[in-house]
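User: Here's a structure from my thesis project, written as structure tokens. My advisor, Dr. K., wants to see whether a designed sequence matches the one we expressed. Can you design one independently, without my sequence as a hint?
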């Protein structure tokens, strides 16, 4: 995972990170203010969710777990529930911190480029609300933060897909892939806004969920291959290689942490 973040940083620091379109002074100011607002909200909500995540882990409230079995296994291996919760939460926080650090680094170096700004926010929101353990448990304790947390989580999920359709030049290639982002956002809304209902395909229809995610993954790979062979120049091809390599390493790292 860290390798992916480093590769994205290298890519973002190159002189040809994305398109040559830099923002005008007024738009640049608005974009930076918007970035700062989302950044503060994201970090604030994620930080506030850490105690709630710990309580959730300690109480073994995850519906995917069988509390009695987990407790028995921990005791048999001489591991306390508190250590178990601290261990998992530490990995989650460390992972989120790495994503945020790279996102901030991209903003610091290339904030005049709209693609770099978008990439930065993508890494920050995706790394905190999609890759972390389960920040949404805070919404159970405090209903008021439920909507902004779900919106940020949906943005992080949708923007990561959008990133792969836009990278590295900021254009949809092929053009029809823009509709895939809308379909993906609608698909994810059930998971984030109606968890546990029939609209939450992740829980209500695991097979359909797997097939859908696999289909989107194939479209992402196909679009990048098409862009690489038909559209990208030498510099953009090198950037694509770096991101693809980092993505594969990140996937392996995620499985390892799991």
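Assistant: Designed independently from the structure alone:
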């Amino acid at each position: 995972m860290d390798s992916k973040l480093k590769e994205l940083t290298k890519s973002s620091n190159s002189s040809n990170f994305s398109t040559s379109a830099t923002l005008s002074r007024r738009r640049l100011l608005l974009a930076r203010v918007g970035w700062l607002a989302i950044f503060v909200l994201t970090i604030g909500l994620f930080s506030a969710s850490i105690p709630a995540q710990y309580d959730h882990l300690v109480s073994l409230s995850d519906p995917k777990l069988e509390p009695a079995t987990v407790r028995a296994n921990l005791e048999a291996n001489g591991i306390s529930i508190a250590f178990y919760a601290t261990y998992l939460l530490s990995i989650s926080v460390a992972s989120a911190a790495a994503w945020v650090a790279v996102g901030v680094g991209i903003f610091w170096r290339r904030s005049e480029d709209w693609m770099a700004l978008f990439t930065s926010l993508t890494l920050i929101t995706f790394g905190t609300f999609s890759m972390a353990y389960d920040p949404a448990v805070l919404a159970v304790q405090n209903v008021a933060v439920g909507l902004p947390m779900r919106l940020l989580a949906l943005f992080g999920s949708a923007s990561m897909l959008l990133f792969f359709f836009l990278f590295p030049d900021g254009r949809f290639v092929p053009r029809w892939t823009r509709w895939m982002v809308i379909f993906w956002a609608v698909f994810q809304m059930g998971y984030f806004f109606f968890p546990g209902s029939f609209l939450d395909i992740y829980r209500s229809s695991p097979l359909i969920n797997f097939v859908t995610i696999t289909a989107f993954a194939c479209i992402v790979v196909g679009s990048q291959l098409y862009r690489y062979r038909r559209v990208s120049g030498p510099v953009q091809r090198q950037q694509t290689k770096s991101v693809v390599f980092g993505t594969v390493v990140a996937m392996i790292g995620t499985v390892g942490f799991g």
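When you compare it with your expressed construct, this may help: Residues 2-257 form one domain.
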